[in-house]
Amino acid sequence: MIQNIELRWLYDLIVLEKYRNFTVAADIRNISQSSLSRRIQTLENSLGFEVFDRDTSPLKLTEKGKLFLLHVRSLLDDFEYNIDKIKGTNDIRSRVTIASAHSLAGYIFPKILGNLKNYQEKIFYVESINVNETVDHLRNGKCDFIASFYDDELMNTQFLCHKLFSAKLYLVTAPNHLGCPKFSLEDGSLPLMNYTDDSYMGKKVNKFLQEHQSHSFSTTFVSSMSILLKDMIKGGYGVGWLPDYSIQDELKNNELMVIPLKNSVLSVDIYLYRSSSRLNAASEGLWSFVKAIDWEIT
What we know:
single chain; Arc Repressor Mutant, subunit A; seven-stranded mixed sheet; two-stranded antiparallel ribbon; 41% helix
C-alpha cells in the first residue's frame, strides 16, 4: 500500500514536468533545488518507480511517469474543485485541457460549446498546435484530450478514441474578376499553396501528387496552418487543398471554387483521443457528451 505521499510533492511534480529543470522549478515552488530534488526522490520511492529519467537533458518523463502525471492532474483538478464546492466558493469551475490540430480547432470547439448547455461551469484550456505536437501532448499527459486526425499509433489499449466525422480535402482556387476560376488545369504549372511535408495534410497531398499530378503543380508557399493557406488562396496567390469544414461559407459565397481534377478529393477522418485512464469528472462528462453529438458536416 502506498503511504505518506504529500500533496505538495504532486504540485512539485506538475511544475517540474512543465519546465523540465530543477533550478527553474525550485524557484517557482519557492524552495531550494536540493529540497525539490529530495521531494521528487521521496515521491518516487513511495511510488516504487521513477517518474523522471535523470540521464536526459532536459528531463524526460519515464513511460510510467507519463501515465502517473495524467492521474495526478485529474486527481488535483477534482480535489481542488471539490474543496471549493465544500467551502461554498462562488463561480467554481472545473478544468478541461485539450490540444487540437490548427485546422480543427475553429470548427470543433464552437460546435461543442454550442451544444453544451452548462459549458460555463467549466474552463476549457485549448491549445492549437500542429498534429505531431498534439500526439506528444497526449502521450506525455499534458492534456485530457486531443482533437486530431487518424493516427495508427494511438489505436491501442492505452488510449480511447471517438471518431467525430469524416471530411474531404478539395483542391480550390479563388475566382478572378469575372467570377471564373483564377487558376485552371489549362494554365500548365499551378502555383501550389501546400502544407509542410511532416504534417498530416502535407502527407496526404504529397502522396496524391506523387501518384498522379506532380508535374501540374509548382510549390510556391508552404505552411502547417490551413487557415494561412486559405488566406493565401483566397488572396489569389495560388491553389491548394483545404478541408470542407473550413471552406463551407467561402464555397457558398463563391469566394473559393473547386478545381475539377480527377481523383483529387482526399478523405480524412477526425478523432477525439484520450487516455484510457480515468480523467477528472468534468473531462469524463465531456467525453460522454461529445460522443452523443451529431458531427455531420452540412
